[in-house]
Amino acid sequence: MLISLDIKKIVINTHYKSKLIKDYIKKNYNKIKIKILYEKELLDTGGGVKNALSFFDEKNILIVNSDIYWHHSTKKDFIRLISFHNKNFNKNKCSLLLSSLLKSYGIEKNKGDFIKKNGLIYRNNLFNRGLMFSGAQIIDKVVFNSIKKDVFSLNMIWDLLIKQKKISGIVMGSNWLHLGNTKSFKYLDKFKT
What we know:
The protein has 193 residues and is α/β, with parallel strands linked by helices. Helices cover 24% and strands 26% of the residues.
């Protein structure tokens, strides 16, 4: 997916099965600039990104979770996310790719993570409503300067940006599949290419 978007530099954080991932990347993607970072101790989602920041010269970076089934129809959503962030980078420090509950598979939640109101993102506390975080976002590296910890969740960043009204996002048009456990794989037939 990233290569099809013409992404030139990729950093992958690893921990579990690190050697297997490294060997797979080396064998199948040796012509692309991919840096493998091994986290000896887990740094959580925010700490892992913060640890990789020195490998990027760019101001904004695309962060993609690896436990999501990114498929051909999600490419349109990535293109829309990039365009949205580029148009709004002066007012937003982070743009999230979100999924509606009705188009979200592989996760057993009846409550979305966020709601979108007046173009901004807020935390959701209502059942059977809200939007799921898809596992993709574009974020300005400067926001990590305010976090002094090495181990922390991206939720800290999001909550800070929600207070500052500097976070927004778009809703995916395609279906979304979270592959967090083996039960999730039963939904793969809905995503046939």
